Amino acid sequence: MSGFGSKAVAACLLWLALAAPALADVGALLAEVVDAHGGGTAPAAIHERGTTESLRRGIGPMERWWQAPDRFRIEIAYPGAAESRLLRGAEAWQQGQPATTAFHGALLLQAARMALPWRLQQNAQRVVDLGTGRSSQGRPLRILEWPVQEGIKLIVEIDAETRLILRSRGILTLNRASMEFATGYENYRSVDGRRVAMTERHFAMDQYTGSTKLDSVEFPAVLPAPTFDPALAAPLLTQAVAQ
Questions:
Q1: For residue 53, what are the β-bridge partners?
Q2: How many other CB atoms sit within 10 Å of the CB of residue 100?
Q3: I want to staple 186 with a disulfide (CB 3.0 to 4.6 A). Which of 142, 199, 206, 216 is the partner?
Q4: CB-based contacts of 239: which residues, under 8 Å, 6+ apart?
Q5: Nearest in space to 127 (alpha carbons), one of 29, 18, 14, 13
Q6: What is the pTM of this model?
Q7: What is residue 12's predicted lDDT score, i.e. its pLDDT?
């Protein structure tokens, strides 16, 4: 083997030796994060009910559905008007109409947050360790980055002691402009063996926009097909507002 070839092989082996421990550390951390949230296998689907309070639109009942890997729907009945959003992979709808590219990206970020501990573990090969930090309350953090897809990433802040996720920051980049949507997680409770944050605090571009409080969480094996069919899914909360 030539001298150049030997040096190239040596450099490659050195890179692998340096990269392997970092990857192993992320994998070990994510295993602890999943255990802290109840362990076990990732939920195949989630159905949640609760109340959303928006500083701009008021308070109303909320219902949210998610099914792996890329189905998401949310209905919020604000006073006098309802919000309906639906994601089906590469397609998205708002109020029953095809969504804009930016709104589609925002829905992808919302969907990525569902079952987040397990989703991070499933994508461990792509998760990047950003090191340590401090929460706004001074708690020590471990910080990870998950590149969901091009132009979309989640920064996840994990309590260094409890391994519970305290906050996620979704960053959407379009045409070199970035938007950030953050969610803080509070009031963890055990639901069917999984620990769920029953209170979420929402922020857009560092500005507080409101909160969501969950009343019930279910983990069905599968959701009815019409749930994610824009032509068949009946917007139940929209109907409730109309009545």
A1: 59, 211
A2: 12
A3: 199
A4: none
A5: 29
A6: 0.86
A7: 52
